[in-house]
Every structure is written in structure tokens, then in C-alpha cells.
Specification:
The protein has 258 residues and is of the alpha/beta class. The chain has one domain: 3-Layer(aba) Sandwich (Stationary-phase Survival Protein Sure Homolog, Chain: A). It is 27% helix and 25% strand. The chain contains 6 helices and 11 strands. A hairpin with a 7-residue loop joins strand 3 and strand 4. The longest helix is centred in the middle third of the chain and has 17 residues. The radius of gyration is 20 Å and the shape is globular. It starts with a strand and ends in a 5-residue tail after the last helix.
């Protein structure tokens, strides 16, 4: 298969390198990733400054570029300008840390995969529930990615498919199994620490901690907490159809005066 690999942790991140090592030799790989960590950038794109692109020249892949832009920029630019081949699948990750529940709205990892489906390519967003930036921590996760690619190669996948995958971290590299899940709840306490620069100007540093929320049993958060790999199909249509029907009837019945 022809695969575009990307991430939000940067071109040299251990998760990305683990995926390359596992898939190289069996698939045609192209890599487009930020030149530095761009976590939490969501679906932002660069429109008010140029995007600098440097060819990485890695021998184990068919093409690799590092960019000054966001993860979404990387996918958009690679698929539009840099990769000549017809890509079969976009893979974003493996991310350092989980992307569960409402994290997907902030995540550069998931947003890069979402850009793939916006452009008509199926995509996987893969995250490991750990924060150690060392390649050896990602070997189990990379093997799961390998198996996912094999399943897709054998069975096909719809163009508008985005699978958000979260893998629990276990030092013995074992898990309880795989669950197909829905997005859970992930809320954070927003803490802005005020600081002063050397000239006395105040700036703010965002902190905060994850809140403990009650989760439904079929959520991705619950699955990972119980040492299951979570696979959540995501679509970008955010329309609330039930509410839309309610307002359709309400507005139809109202005399607007025009």
C-alpha cells in the first residue's frame, strides 16, 4: 500500500520512527511531519506566513519532508503538492499520550488524520497512553498499526473513514483485547499562571489537570482504563439531526413577519 505518515510530535518523534521501522519494506511510505512538536494545534492551518519545507532524505522511505507548519498543513501540502503517488491511507501518530473523548477537538494528531478524509483519503489516528518519548515504548503499538494496515489492505476501507485508535501502555506490552468504542468525556481544569517577562509584561502559561468524569461503559476512556485498545470510528459531520428537526418544526410554525 501507499501510505502517508504524519504526526504532531515532530519529525524525529519516537512514535513516528517506530511506525516507519515496522512498515518499511512492505509498503510505499511517504512522511510529512512538523519540524517541532505541534501538540494541541487542532485543525489549525497556516495562512499568514509561508510554510518552509525541507526534504529529509531518509533511505527507508520513498519520500520525507519536514515542515514549519501545523500537522494539518503537513497533510494538506503533502497530498496536494509533494507526493506523486495515489495514497491509499493516511496514518497520523503514534502520538505521545492518548487522544480520548473530547481530546480529538484539540489534537493535532487526530486533526491531521481528519484532513486526510477531508481530502478524500481514509485515515488512522494512533495514540499511546504514555508520555515517554522513547522509540522502544512504541514497538507494541507499531505492531498493532502493522496489523491494522494488513486488515485494510485485505478488506478495503471507505474513503471517508477515520479510525481513532488509543493503545494502553503496559510495560509487558500486553493488552486485554480490542473494543470498538465511542468518544468519552475528557474535561480539564483550566489554570492560567500569570508570569512576567524581563520587561515586566505579563504573559500567561496554560496548565491544569484532567478531571475525573463519569464514563459510559462503551467509551474509549473506559476501554483504555481497562487495558483495552480502543478503536473509535469518527465522522466530521457535527450536525445534531434530532435538534435540527425540532427547530425545523419550530421555525416553520412561527410567523416571522416576512
Amino acid at each position: 500500500m501507499k501510505l502517508l505518515l504524519t504526526n504532531d510530535d515532530g519529525i524525529n518523534a519516537g512514535g513516528l520512527r517506530a511506525v516507519i521501522k515496522t512498515l518499511a519494506g512492505e509498503h510505499e511510505l511517504y512522511v510529512a511531519a512538523p519540524d517541532r512538536e505541534r501538540s494541541g494545534t487542532g485543525h489549525s492551518i497556516t495562512v499568514f506566513e509561508p510554510i518552509k519545507v525541507v526534504e529529509a532524505g531518509w533511505p527507508e522511505v520513498n519520500g520525507a519532508w519536514t515542515m514549519s507548519g501545523t500537522p494539518v498543513d503537513c497533510v494538506k501540502l503533502a497530498l496536494s503538492q509533494l507526493v506523486d503517488a495515489k495514497i491509499d491511507l493516511v496514518i497520523s501518530g503514534i502520538n505521545h499520550g492518548p487522544n480520548l473523548g473530547t481530546d480529538v477537538l484539540y489534537s493535532g494528531t487526530v486533526s491531521a488524520a481528519a484532513e486526510g478524509i477531508i481530502m478524500g483519503f481514509p485515515a488512522l489516528a494512533v495514540s499511546l497512553n504514555a508520555y515517554q518519548p522513547y522509540g522502544e515504548d512504541f514497538s507494541y503499538s507499531a505492531r498493532f498499526v502493522y496489523q491494522m494496515v494488513k486488515i485494510i489492505e485485505q478488506n478495503g476501507i471507505e474513503p471517508q473513514t477515520l479510525l481513532n485508535i488509543n493503545i494502553p501502555f503496559d510495560k509487558n506490552r500486553r493488552c486485554a483485547g480490542i473494543k470498538i468504542t465511542k468518544l468519552g468525556i475528557r474535561n480539564y481544569t483550566n489554570v492560567f499562571e500569570a508570569r512576567k517577562d524581563p520587561r515586566g509584561n505579563i504573559y500567561y502559561w496554560l496548565g491544569g489537570a484532567l478531571q475525573e468524569d463519569r464514563q459510559e461503559t462503551d467509551s474509549d476512556v473506559t476501554a483504555v482504563q481497562n487495558n483495552y485498545i480502543s478503536v473509535t470510528p469518527i465522522k466530521l459531520d457535527l450536525t445534531d439531526y434530532k435538534l435540527a428537526e425540532k427547530y425545523r418544526k419550530l421555525f416553520k410554525e412561527r410567523d416571522w413577519g416576512f
